[in-house]
Amino acid sequence: MLPDASESPPERFVGWLGSLGCAAAGYGVFQALLGVLPDSLGGDFAKWLVSGVSGVAVGLAAWLAAALLRARARTGRHIAVGAPPVLVPPATAGPGPLPEVFAAAYEALVGEKTEFDDPVRGKLTGWSHSLGEGASSSPTALSTAYGLHMMLDLNVPDGRLSTGDLVDTLWRLRLPDGGWSARTQGSVARPEITALVLGALARAGSSSERLAAEVARCGAGFTPELDPAGRESTHVVTTVLRGLLRAAPHSAPLPLLCESLVEGAIDDPDREHLRCWGYRLHAPYGDPSPLHTAQAVVALDRAARVLGETAAARAARQDGVRWLLACPDTRHDACPDVTKLREEVRRPRSDDPTHHEVLYVRHFTATWLVRALTTPGAREVALAEGMEAQWRERLDGAFAAVWAGQTDGIWSWDRGDGSELRRPMWMTYQGLSALRGHAVWIYQPGRPEQAEPSRLRQVSEQ
User: Fold this and answer.
1) Are 182 and 193 in contact (CB under 8 A)?
2) Residue 345: is its pLDDT beyond 50?
3) pLDDT value of residue 461
4) pTM above 0.90, yes or no
5) Strands, E, within 266-333: which ranges?
6) Distance (Å, whole) CA 5 – CA 178
7) Mind listing the pLDDT tens digit for each residue in 378-396?
8) Quick one: which of 367, 233, 246, 225 has its CA closest to 306?
9) Alpha carbon distances (Å) from 274 to 268, 288, 326, 383, 457
10) Minimal CA–CA distance to 340: which of 398, 299, 261?
11) Cα torsion for 398, 238, 344, 213, to the nearest 10°?
């Protein structure tokens, strides 16, 4: 009984076992008859002939029975030729853990929301830097923007959180001269925070007219002359790019920022001389960085979908994808490429240029790898160059690292000094965003594995 070429490897293996079983049944009958038939039947030749014919007949009957059972099994899986396939999920298949994680995250965000009556700005509704800081802490622009992004991703299942209140709070937190800054940056607007807030406001439906003035002010101040530290930072440039692509996709600074990002790519001799990115876009660039390469790939891919891209931008972006796929480690959920990083962005203070303002940035690297590897451009590179296996392996590893870091939908950052874990808003936003994006990316209706328990459950049980 030869296995059907259209069957899966396990089915073909069982088919070969069935063939051996049929042969064994025939041989057993042959041996049994040869031992019990009397010599008076007509000599040894007659005994061998009767036993052999009987054995072949039994083996053939067993083969036909097995073939009939396999044919019936195939008709249970497939519809008649010419009819569209219909997939009926098994009754025992239940939902994966992702809905529970999202629900738990929403409950935590509702419970940690803070409302603060500011004597100047009025009532503020949002979140402080980290969950658990207490209701007495005033909401910050950065964390409230991340919270607004999460509410939009979670679709606000009830009225306990109002996106309208969050939008109003962000506008009230706008600095007197325009723009927004982080809590540690004081009263001077910074482009990376402003662009992030503008992106959240645009997603929530703020009018383009109201956003336009802030977009123009952000772009005018984000130049090599006025903000050299920001324009040299891969993190800052990619953050501004992503925010302005949401808030004002046709604003003038965007092509210039893309060009600056492309020119800041570096060659890595340790990975086939592929181009990647370090933490700076000008010398000294720093070491090749999976985090900053992933951020650059995400920003350039989004820009390509909105603005188109030059040949140089396409080549740099695709090299960045190849570089991420060239990780030499064998276990990608714990390799150096997913290590969390810390970074400082230093700028001279406007009131005292002899001192510096320092923005401490922490990076959830694994989430950026998930986002970079699920860009349409990354998939195109993997398919075109026969690297789909590497792509899946590295994406699965990065996803496993993201999944392992959450507890009830909230991610924590270990400060490394033995003190209590902090739960920064940005980290939970990035974790939820990576889970949601990955789930959407891998969903393929009509595939049999979609009717089985989710891969998310398998990861969570490891």
Assistant:
1) yes
2) yes
3) 39
4) no
5) 266-268, 274-276
6) 67
7) 999 999 999 999 999 999 9
8) 246
9) 6, 10, 9, 18, 36
10) 398
11) -140
